[in-house]
Amino acid sequence: MISCIRRAKTKLLIAFLFSLATTFGLSTPGAAQGGVGLKPEDPAIVSAGEALYKNNCVVCHSVGDDVVVGPGLKGINERRAQPWLISWIKNSQALIQSGDKDAVAVYNQFNKQAMPSFAFSDEEVVSILTYIKSAESVAAETAGPASGAETAPGQNVGTDAVGAVGGYLDIVLVVLIVVLIVLVVTLLLITSLLKNYLNKNKQLDEYDAEVVNQRFDFSKVYKSKAVRTLVVLIFVVVLLDLGLNKVMGIGIQEGYAPKQPIAFSHKLHAGEHQIDCNYCHTTVYKGKSASIPSANICMNCHSQIKAESPEIQKIYKAIERNKPIEWVRIHNLPDLAYFNHAQHTQVAGVECQTCHGPIQEMEVVYQYSPLTMGWCIDCHRETPLNTEGNAYYDNLVKLHEQSSKGAFTVASNGGTECSKCHY
Ligand code: HEC
Ligand code: HEC
Ligand code: HEC
Ligand code: HEC
Ligand code: HEC
Ligand code: HEC
């Protein structure tokens, strides 16, 4: 019942914000452009590099100083020679085994974690390096809170439409309060000046003197109807604001890692034994949802492997009883949002790890990304569309190039319109 009311309220809220957003042009493609400040000279290379970086490197690296899994890549172009970087990124293990001093040093410094190899061409590696360089200079030019959020990938600061509106309201409120305080202080000063002046320089009759020297009567103020209404109003507004923030926080479960009925390890299966994700999540490249494997898929191997282990016996029992294994669901968007895996994995070519983190290292899966609206929209604003070899986009790309100089991002194709994600 309560959740039903909440859903109805949310629908109303969406409709309201929908109209707000259209009024303020929040959802128009142009509005999203300003955020991605790239160097004017080679935007094509930079945006190609950005896409490669976001799809392959962001999981383990930041373009700043922060260590994620590997070192922060700020200043990497100065720290290392380009040929070194190209061979490192293509195959760091080979470079380490060749005995290169620098390579062995970073490898040891990061506890001999092997960075994966990438089958990139030299141009592709150079484009990534160009992007890293441009991200540094963008950060240096516009050192503010907004650019801070942009230069720290992996950290998903929610700057969604709802948050932006809330931010403006806060600023307006603070300004109003400051103006009010200044007004009150000035008025008090004027009264006291006038009072002194009148008392000193004018002969007042008894009645006037009483008025001028009247004490400020708090109980009168307290009893006044206007003041009471005002206090109640302020109270209600504060409560509503708190309530709204609570509602916005519902369902954000970053780091959620429930105990599963069988001690299944992605680190063992996807990491050490390198079983493809879609061997088990069979619809992840074809369908809306990724799907959780049935016990039969486990049996392809476990009819032979470790069949006597108590954990594996649980799979046998499930099959005997003809009951599915009751895995606890970790990622769960509310019904009001539409998300499609195939669109992101197959069409856009986004790696699982960009959204789900280093699953192949997880003993127990946890929710890596916040899965908030701001998170979806931030990525849609920053990510260029993967249009190569996709005839569907040929005309759209031409149209975009005529009307705008920025990268052809998901957002510029309408990926921040409310109706794309909300039915
Ligand atoms: C799974 C995690 C992971 C991914 C993905 C990854 N790296 Fe790394 N990277 C590391 C680790 C860890 C190191 C530290 C050296 C070591 O332990 O091998 C490193 C080191 C580096 C270095 C050397 C830094 C230095 O100070 O010399 C560069 C350059 C680099 N990575 C670039 C990239 C680029 C570019 C990508 C994307 C194409 C990428 N990495 C993807 C984990 C990763
Ligand atoms: C051998 C089969 C298998 C392979 C291979 C596998 N998974 Fe899984 N995956 C599972 C099972 C079983 C679950 C449910 C239990 C759990 O959460 O650990 C699961 C759960 C998940 C979840 C959480 C689902 C939820 O409840 O929200 C994600 C995300 C995930 N896998 C991603 C991946 C990715 C990415 C890869 C490849 C790197 C991968 N999986 C490879 C079997 C597999
Ligand atoms: C493609 C083959 C393959 C598939 C499919 C597979 N596994 Fe495994 N699994 C392995 C291998 C290999 C091991 C490691 C065995 C060892 O340590 O000797 C393993 C180990 C395990 C273990 C640890 C057993 C122990 O006692 O050490 C569990 C639990 C497990 N798997 C559960 C599952 C579940 C649940 C599924 C289905 C969602 C599944 N596996 C699917 C290959 C597979
Ligand atoms: C663009 C971000 C993104 C990418 C890329 C992505 N996922 Fe997901 N994944 C999600 C979201 C969001 C959900 C929650 C969906 C929901 O609740 O409807 C999810 C849910 C899941 C689940 C839980 C079951 C389900 O289908 O809802 C599994 C398993 C999963 N993902 C596996 C994968 C695998 C494997 C890959 C890579 C082949 C992958 N994901 C790539 C965002 C992503
Ligand atoms: C890592 C980046 C990334 C994240 C995170 C992400 N998306 Fe996307 N999304 C993309 C890309 C890239 C495309 C473009 C796919 C294409 O070429 O059609 C896209 C396309 C879409 C589309 C189709 C848009 C259109 O114009 O047809 C929808 C709907 C969508 N995403 C929903 C979501 C939702 C909902 C979430 C959050 C739960 C989300 N996305 C998170 C990268 C992302
Ligand atoms: C790229 C996909 C995407 C777009 C575009 C999008 N949303 Fe959302 N929205 C989401 C997701 C995902 C959620 C669920 C977030 C959560 O559970 O925290 C959500 C939740 C909401 C909620 C409910 C908040 C709550 O706490 O339940 C409202 C209201 C909302 N969106 C309004 C809008 C409006 C208005 C627009 C147009 C300006 C819009 N959305 C555009 C993905 C999107």
The tally of strands reads 0
In terms of DSSP E residues, the strand content is under 5%
What's the helix count? 21
Distance between the termini: 22 Å
Oligomerization category of the chains in this entry: single chain
SSE arrangement, N to C: HHHHHHHHHHHHHHHHHHHHH
Low-confidence stretches: 1-6, 12-40, 143-164
Give the integer mean of the pLDDT values. 79
- The shape, in one word, is elongated
Q: Report Rg.
A: 30 Å
- What percent of residues adopt helix (DSSP H or I)? 55-70%
Derived from helix and strand composition plus strand pairing, the structural class reads mainly alpha
Which compounds are bound in this model?
heme C
Mind summarizing the main beta sheet? none
